[in-house]
Design a protein that fits this description.
By secondary structure, the chain is an alpha/beta fold. The protein has helices at residues 14-36, 92-102, 118-121, 123-126, 155-161, 174-184, 188-207, 214-227, 232-236, 245-257, 352-362, 366-379, 402-410, 427-434, 452-459, 491-500, and strands at residues 4-5, 48-52, 59-66, 69-77, 107-108, 110-112, 133-134, 137-140, 264-267, 283-288, 314-317, 320-323, 384-389, 392-396, 438-440, 469-472, 502-505, 511-513, 518-520, 535-538, 542-546. A hairpin with a 2-residue loop joins strand 3 and strand 4 (69-77). Helix 7 (188-207) packs across helix 12 (366-379), helix 8 (214-227) packs parallel to helix 12 and helix 14 (427-434) packs across helix 15. The chain is globular and about 90 Å long. The protein starts with a strand and ends with a strand.
Amino acid sequence: MTTRTKTKSARKPTARKITKKATKKVSKKVSKKATKRTASRGNAKGLKVRMYRVGFGDFFLVTVPTARGDQFILIDCGVFKGRSGTGDLGSIVEAVEDMYKTTKKGKLALVIMTHRHADHIAGFSKADFSKFTSSMVWMPYWEQFNADKGKKTSAKNFAASGNQNLALDGNQNAAATGAQTAAEEDENEAFNLQLDIQALATNLAMQFGSRKDPEAEEALAQLGNATGIEDFSAVATGKKGVGGGNAGALDVLKNHLGKNGENVRYYSAGDEPELPAELKGLKATILGPPPKKAKAFLALTDLKKGVGQYLDSIEDGEDGPTAINPFRGEWSSKELPTEYKAKDLRGRDIDYDAAKKAVVESQPDMLAAAAAKIETFLNNQSLVVLFEFGGKKLLFAGDAQAGNWEYWLYKISGPIKDPTKAGDIVEESKELLQTIDFYKVGHHGSTNATPIQMVEAAIARPPGSKGFVSMCSTEDEVYGNPDKATEVPRTLLMDALRKDSCLLRSDAIPITIKDPKLTVKARQGVTLPKPKVGKIKKASLYLEYSF
């Protein structure tokens, strides 16, 4: 346990027939775009990836050596306390201050928000970003439905705005087609998607906040991560100074760093991204999230059967979401005359309250199911970006779960819970994974964020390969249960990555926090490996890998 001390493929039949056409079509489209992209230039010497140790959260800084000097890309800046309440180490403010000094007084070429979970964006509101500037901000395609130039707007105004960054089809040509497209398609659903998630998460958390069982604690933590709210009881009682935590972070991203939305770009798989001029020589490919036409992939939790089948176990009541009641009111024992009350086979009166309780308890846990759905939906929105520079390939996958991965790994037209029916990973994806030099481990080492298929492809390296470096920003005992094989980071995944790559875990080093003066020890049993190529730097707040 981390302590703190004060310092003095298999089957391919029918589904292949169904998906072959889609696979061919998508692969052709992607390869065509690939030929248009300029090959990455520059020398990889000086290319660095820094991982700040903040606890359960992602905070990565990429240094790109260019003709204009070092340029900086910030990928996420977040942390969350989690179910255990120990996920936030309290270092994120000092880590941001350290980044300010490193980046020539806060000059960032690009800021990437992979998705809107607190463990990826909370730092933008917890720390002071007022002196930082950014030439461009990238966000996932689905985030655009929340705002017009960084400000809340109605679905009607959204349709009529014609803002080039609010393209309904993700191609940034809404100015020409905005009003007409909106008239032809119902965008209300897409626009309200994120806002409905926020409202549902808050409603569920306040309604079930009194539950103290492990399943509820896990679910409530997931809802807190989705909203950025760490104290739902305070929200329920209307305490001042308590609000949607993620809203403040998004405001900084869209309005301050994104200059009121003018410098914000929204992307999904297959889009050709716009890079700031100062990053000349860097090549970027957007692999995820799934675009609008593939929205069904956002709901896929895991690459296996029988996941998430309980979405319909929720219904809206006068007092908010409730479990589905299978019986109509007239069949309630309270409304039946005494003479109609039945007896069991032994002639004893049936305890209707006990029977009702048994029926309700036999249903799936509505809170857990709903929280898991929200968690999956937001994680699958993650921007997945492949950077190439000086012959090196860096894959940043955010918290992408199965639906996001499956969309670009298999190039199929619709999600399949059992991907063995989709055939093998397409050659293009397989070749990419076999040649990556760096992988940012998804969702802090969660088992459903780094598919087995991905690991198998990545370790099947060509002869003479030096392997790849994987970085995992994580904190043990914050989420999940080892007895249920749900712990984060997942032990088996860490073992596989440690064996087949150079795995750098953020908790492999102790960190020192100046205010309050505090030392957080390294995780017992977690060590730093020696890379086959490149160097690792240890500092008081971070690990940094130089290519």
